[in-house]
Write a structure and sequence with these properties.
Ubiquitin-like (UB roll); binds zinc ion; Metallo-beta-lactamase, Chain A; Rossmann fold; alpha/beta; about 35% helix; 18 helices; 6-stranded mixed beta sheet; globular; 26 strands; 8-stranded mixed beta sheet
Length: about 650
């Protein structure tokens, strides 16, 4: 795997364009490799699952608080709430650096640095935009972490969605050495699947944490707090630093009736808030939506109705493979309604297997039937679980809708539930699939009609609740495009938060803070590294530009052979892909005319003693201006001059 950084541009001005580019540090201080020898302690030994010890710690804390409140003045207590005394008088400031997930959706990654300690929260990927043809995934630029490798204590993972763990394998590969990864059992099992694909499992120490786990990591202590989200095993992270407490929410929603048995630990968040939080970093995905996100159990109610009404009919449900609680619920309903289950789609099978392996889902194996054998099962006794809830072109549901999936043929006895909402940008694909399913005679139930899906992200009222419980001194909105972050900032301002104590970060920003300072102090190298096949970072802006113009205008190859005396020894040949169709009478005449023009130009260039590069540019110039003036087209022209 080769790593190189794409298109180094100077992003000194933070307001310049961003996107498929890497942003070098504006501040040499942070870009320099650290010369300090790291205290490479793993700290795993010190990690404890603080169930028993949490109680004693709590009691100790209570006694300490009581003693303090007797001795200290009110202003001192207020100062303590803001972290001044609790941590003594810290020498340095905390640096928070954003390698992704701000000003964009996806590739979430935040770096916390104090002294010789670095802790990273999440290492996610994002999917390529329409302007990145052929790119498989996009990952953050890890340069800063590579330069400061010896300081890195651990990578903490909030949950197992791709935008939080999708870049882990690339990070492990790039950093070298052994990396400590902390996450809940499902998150780590999903990470393990990824690492196994890249043969990297021996390059990490996986440390399983759960709600209330506390781990010590150099100058930091991290506590994990369970939150509700659309994948099981999601946590917020409370990072205790020498300058004060930072609470990072990860992705969350507040669900009082979630499907699993894990209830969000709101109590602990309130306690942490009471002890005093210096900085709250809260996710912003659903900040534009007023009110509350509906509970996941609403989906269960709708699904029950679907099962009830679809008596005698075959049911096909497409949903996000990662929402293992929802899939578990659907499997449970199938059992209740005495249906066998066939699973279709590689990722769906993988998630079910993984969730069962770690005990997040429990199913009887004999309920499953092989997708190849579904013809032996009556329609009314079958449920097919499928991928493709986003209309992904190669997914099972999309192929069923197009009649290209030979194992499942859609007909009028099918009820198809699409338990998802289109992710922005996917609307057209998914509605195309729905149209096709209707044309085949099926009944389709989707989120515009019934509550078959709820979001995993907090709406305004939930965001307000978390903010109010935590009441931080400083606030940074995270996880969202600029408009989301801006609206989240405005939301907390309405709750009485001082504008000067809010920072809306840009990718690459380094925020410096302690009890009296809170500012952007510089930038570190950041950006988008594109992965195409096995190449990491070798597709840059120039390659992308070529791919885009090839897609839009096609290519024209013009070739000719010349000998060492500079004489033309073959006729000029013209070939096209995506530019015009050869074989059409009109086009053949056009090709003849172009060939004649090119031959004249080549002869005249050679007569004037021009070398091969000059002949090539003559070919390019002639072909381009011919197409531009005659057809208003701009194909990519590739001149080939063979020297024989
Ligand atoms: Zn998520
Ligand atoms: Zn996310």
């Amino acid at each position: 795997m080769s790593f190189c950084v794409v298109n180094k541009r100077n992003f000194m001005n933070r307001n310049k364009t961003r996107g498929a580019a890497t942003k070098p540090a504006s501040n040499g201080r942070f870009a320099k490799a650290s010369k300090t020898a790291g205290r490479q302690t793993t700290d795993i030994g010190r990690y404890r699952r603080a169930k028993g010890s949490a109680k004693t710690a709590d009691n100790r804390q209570k006694k300490e608080n009581m003693k303090n409140s007797q001795q200290k003045s009110l202003s001192q207590q207020n100062a303590e709430r803001n972290g001044v005394f609790r941590y003594g008088h810290p020498k340095g400031k905390l640096k928070v650096m954003f390698l992704g997930g701000v000003g964009e959706i996806g590739k979430n990654m935040t770096v916390f640095e104090y002294g010789d300690s670095i802790v990273v929260i999440d290492a996610g990927m994002s999917f390529p935009g329409n302007d990145m043809p052929g790119v498989d995934v996009v990952i953050p630029d890890f340069s800063y972490l590579v330069q400061n490798r010896n300081k890195i204590k651990a990578v903490l993972l909030t949950h197992g969605h791709e935008d939080h763990i999708g870049a882990i394998a690339f990070l492990v590969e790039r950093l070298g050495g052994k990396l400590d990864l902390y996450g809940t059992k499902l998150t780590l099992a999903l990470v393990e699947n990824k690492l196994a694909e890249h043969s990297l499992t021996d390059k990490v120490n996986l440390v399983t944490i759960s709600d209330k786990s506390v781990v010590s990591l150099g100058d930091f202590t991290a506590e994990f707090i369970h939150v509700s989200h659309s994948v099981a095993g999601s946590v917020a992270i409370c990072l205790r630093t020498p300058v004060g407490v930072v609470l990072h929410t990860g992705d969350f929603k507040i669900d009082y009736t979630p499907l699993g048995n894990e209830i969000m630990n709101l109590n602990r968040i309130a306690e942490v808030g009471k002890q005093g939080v210096l900085l709250l970093m809260s996710e912003s995905t659903n900040v534009e939506k007023a009110g509350y996100t509906m509970s996941e159990s609403v989906v269960e109610d709708t699904m029950k109705k679907v099962f009830h009404e679809a008596k005698g009919r075959r049911i096909i449900v497409a949903t996000f493979a990662s929402n293992v609680d929802r899939i578990g619920m659907i499997i449970h309903l199938a059992k209740l309604y005495k249906r066998k289950i066939a699973v279709s789609g590689r990722s769906m099978i993988k998630y079910i297997e993984t969730a069962c392996r770690v005990g997040q889902m429990s199913v009887d194996n004999d309920i499953f039937v092989d997708i190849d054998k579904i013809n032996n099962v009556e329609d009314g006794k079958l449920l097919i679980l499928s991928t493709g809830s986003q209309g992904e072109p190669m997914s099972a549901l999309t192929r069923m809708a197009s009649g290209e999936f030979n194992k499942v043929h859609i007909g009028s006895n099918d009820t198809i539930v699409i338990s998802a909402t289109p992710i922005p940008g996917n609307e057209r694909d998914i509605y195309n699939v729905i149209n096709k399913l209707y044309r085949l005679g099926a009944m389709v139930v989707y989120s515009a009609l019934e509550a078959v899906h709820v979001s995993g992200h907090a709406c305004q009222e939930e965001l307000k609740l978390i903010y109010t419980l935590v009441k931080p001194k400083y606030f940074i909105p995270i996880h969202g495009e600029y408009r989301h972050l801006k609206q989240h900032a405005m939301l907390v301002e309405k709750l009485g938060h001082k504008r000067s104590n809010i920072i809306i970060p840009d990718i690459g920003d380094c925020v410096e803070l302690d009890n009296s300072v809170f500012k952007v102090c510089g930038t570190v190298t950041s950006g988008s590294v594109m992965v195409d096949g096995l190449g990491v970072g070798d597709v840059g802006n120039i390659v992308l530009k070529d791919r885009l113009s090839l897609a839009e205008e096609g290519i024209l190859v013009c070739s000719v052979a010349v000998n060492e005396k500079g004489r033309v020894v073959s006729s000029v040949e013209v070939a096209s892909r995506g530019c015009f169709f050869v074989g059409d009478d009109h086009n053949d005449a056009m090709v003849d005319e172009l060939k004649r023009l090119l031959t004249e130009e080549i002869y005249s260039a050679l007569r004037n003693g021009k070398n091969v590069p000059a002949v090539k540019s003559a070919i390019q110039r002639t072909a381009r201006s011919y197409f531009r003036s005659k057809y208003k087209r701009n194909p990519v022209v590739l001149p080939l001059v063979l020297e024989v």
